[in-house]
Amino acid sequence: MRRVAFIGAGRMGQTIAYSALMDGIADEALIFDIVANVPQRFSDELIHALSTARVDTRVIGTNAIEDIKEADLVVISAGKPRLPDQSRTAVFADNAKVMMALAKELPMRNPHATYIVVTNPVDYMASIFMKSSGKYTISTGAQVENMRMRSFIAQRLGVPVTSVNGFAGGEHGENLSIFWDTVTVNGIPFDEASGGALKRDEVASYVKGIAAQVIAALGGTSWGPSRAIGDIISSFAKNKNKVLSIAAPMKYKDEVIHVSRPTVVGNPIGPTLEAALSSADRKDIDAAAGRMYKEYKELLKTLQ
Ligand SMILES: NC(=O)c1ccc[n+]([C@@H]2O[C@H](COP(=O)([O-])OP(=O)(O)OC[C@H]3O[C@@H](n4cnc5c(N)ncnc54)[C@H](O)[C@@H]3O)[C@@H](O)[C@H]2O)c1
Question: Between the N and C ends of the chain, which has fewer C-beta atoms within 10 Å?
Fold first, then answer.
């Protein structure tokens, strides 16, 4: 890939850029933030790290949005993070304004870019960015939870993480669904493989609750989600066609919404593999889509 842009150089923007660029995904990286000096000095840090890894990517940090141009991929993590006791939708109105402002600036200089939104509530922010910009946009969705789920099962059952497979999806966050019929350990269905040593409820409550615990202790999540998001970026940039649980746009009634489903991530992105899921897992996706559409419509009203 020739050029990737990172919009937002906070905790997430920095760790995502580090994680993705270390995979040697682009000739050039543009880093943008509104805080003076942050993208510039972070770019210095990145160049030092990339040089150590012998990765030749030109990195430019800037506070001028006009410098963000001709990118093939734009990754947006600009906006407010939630506090430990807040839900992700608490920052909806503030972050929607950031998405709408960026949607006015980015597409004209980056008309051929694919856009990846990270900012929370991520599925709704991707829908708002796509609605306001008219550009193809994905949400990083539940890929973060996939890795939280697989790593927790592996640690608790004492097996290598590579032997755990399966997908979470629907909505990123507290309303996530685990597609249990896809979850296997060494190819054996989860319930049989765990033999009662680990219950579905324990897995679900860890996967849904761990982010709040990390935020309370460390001020925010970063390394875990950023590596999962780096994997999404790398799979797109290198056309790896990995199956990841991202939320690609989905027409639902009168809106385009973002609901996570196992999806082939290459360039271009897709198809989604929803049709290959069991009817129980597909039912969870339908329920999530219905609930998310309703909540999204209500939240949109708060912007008027
Ligand atoms: N999708 C996920 O899995 C996931 C995981 C963790 C965090 N997040 C979300 O990512 C977002 C960022 O989190 P963070 O921890 O990096 O927060 P942060 O406060 O560390 O960084 C946010 C950055 O955005 C910048 N910013 C604000 N408005 C901007 C604009 N208009 N243009 C450019 N930059 C702007 C700020 O200056 C700041 O540097 C939050 O909404 C958070 O909830 C998403």
Answer: C
Q: Would you list the domain boundaries of the chain?
A: 3-139, 143-303
Ligand 1: atom nearest CA of 8 is 34
Measured between alpha carbons, how far is 299 from 113 in angstroms, rounded to an integer?
Answer: 27
pTM above 0.90, yes or no: yes
Mutate-to-test residue for ligand 1 from 7, 16, 34, 214, highest number of ligand atoms within 8 A of CB: 34
Checking if the pLDDT of 33 tops 90, the result is yes
Domain 3-139 sits in CATH at 3.40.50.720
Determine the residue type at 201. Answer: D
Q: Which residues are catalytic?
A: 172
Q: Is 81 in the pocket of ligand 1 (CB under 6 A)?
A: yes
Domain 143-303 has CATH 3.90.110.10: yes
Tokens at 299, concatenated: 């939240």
The pLDDT of residue 304 is above 90: no
Tell me the average pLDDT of the chain: 97
% of the chain residues with pLDDT over 70: 100
Q: Sheet harboring 3-7: ordered strands across?
A: 58-62, 28-32, 3-7, 73-76, 114-117, 137-139
pLDDT surpasses 90 at 130: yes
Q: What is the mean pLDDT of residues 291-298?
A: 97
